[in-house]
Amino acid sequence: MFILSLETSCDETAAAVLESTAAGFSLLSDVVSSQVALHAKWGGVVPNLAAREHLKNMLPVVEQALREASVNQSDISLIAVTNGPGLIPALLVGVGAAKTLSYLWQVPLIGIHHIEGHIYANFIHQTKTEEITFPILCLVVSGGHTQLVLMKKHLDYEIVGETLDDAAGEAFDKVARILDLGYPGGPAISAIAEEFRISNLEFRIKSGLENSKLSLPRPMINSKDFNFSFSGLKTAVLYKFRSLSKNLPSDKKELLVTELAAEFQAATVEVLTKKTMAAAKKYGVKTVMLAGGVSANMELRKCLAAKVAAELENVNCVLPDIKYSGDNAAMIGAAAHFRYHATQDKNSWQDNWKNLETDANLKLKNQ
Ligand code: KG4
Ligand code: ZN
Fold this sequence. Notes:
The protein has 367 residues and is α/β, with parallel strands linked by helices. The chain has two domains: 2-121 and 326-355, ATPase, nucleotide binding domain (Nucleotidyltransferase, domain 5, 2-Layer Sandwich), CATH 3.30.420; 132-319, 2-Layer Sandwich (Nucleotidyltransferase, domain 5). Helix content is 46%, strand content 18%. It is built from 13 helices and ten strands. It has helices at 36-40, 47-68, 88-105, 114-120, 126-129, 168-178, 185-198, 200-207, 231-245, 250-283, 298-311, 330-342, 352-355, and strands at 2-7, 12-21, 24-34, 76-84, 109-113, 136-141, 146-151, 158-162, 287-291, 316-318. A five-stranded mixed β-sheet has the order 3-2-1-4-5, with helices on both faces. A five-stranded mixed β-sheet has the order 8-7-6-9-10, with helices on both faces. α4 packs across α12. The model has no long low-confidence stretch (mean pLDDT 94). 5'-O-[(R)-(carboxyoxy)(hydroxy)phosphoryl]adenosine binds at residues 10, 142-144, 169-170, 172-173, 184-187, 190, 292-294, 296-297, 326-327.
């Protein structure tokens, strides 16, 4: 069977086609139309602007996904769409399109949780699935979520830790705004931090900051639970930047920004990695996985993989392909594939063209 999946929860309009059987699935097309450039000048995603763009792009993106997969609308047996969490005006466009196509084509419609999609991005490459053994601990790090999710089997989620305030991606974006590095902040900070890592010493000497202490806090790193907090770290960057940049000439200010960005990334990665490792040990998992937009961060990928290899025997560290780290519809189709084959009673999906609800705060639902 062929599955058409749609994703419009934030600022990417996406559609994908998967071929799915009980034995597995393959991705036939994966189209993403990004609005990043449009929102960059506002310093973040403007929900109504995102919705307007989704409306413009949705059907052309669906058409392209069908064309690239070499399938017709009559080949599609299931439609999957992100119905939350996310920005309501943005979600409504994808859900509205999915409901209309479901009604017109007379095919069932399934709503997929955005984070479930991010988790299942790890299953997109079939070769990987054999190394993904349960129980899994997945560190979900996106613009809206930071959670440690324990999965004892497919479609079974227990949140064992989460952020008490800002999500990790949100912290990257806010720190980038403080340091005037543009939007989205994650890629900007990681690029500048990499630059810093390469020429660390040179930077410190040139900046004349060699005597200053640019260390930032590692919030909750020693707490006994698996929760996180990033809001204080962001504020610490703000105060350090304000106090140290006073009276600095512009070239040195640039160096200060670089060093602060690198230290912020180091602090974030250290906390995320340490908590994930502690939870992986406590729950005795077989796989440690990463999901969400921040999983594109090379430092986080490297550190987590190195720690798992060094400290956890017979545990695999699974990282999503960078291509599927950010928002896309292939991951929504992958999650739909697993839900479809695991659900006995698929009848209710038939009426979802009228029943499916959109929820900005949708909770992860177990099978
Ligand atoms: O999953 P995602 O694309 O959208 C949400 O579901 O929120 O995540 C977006 C977040 C943004 O905050 C962005 O700054 C962050 O992911 N991000 C990164 C990197 N690439 C994207 N954060 C750190 N390092 C990166 N390389
Ligand atoms: Zn996302």
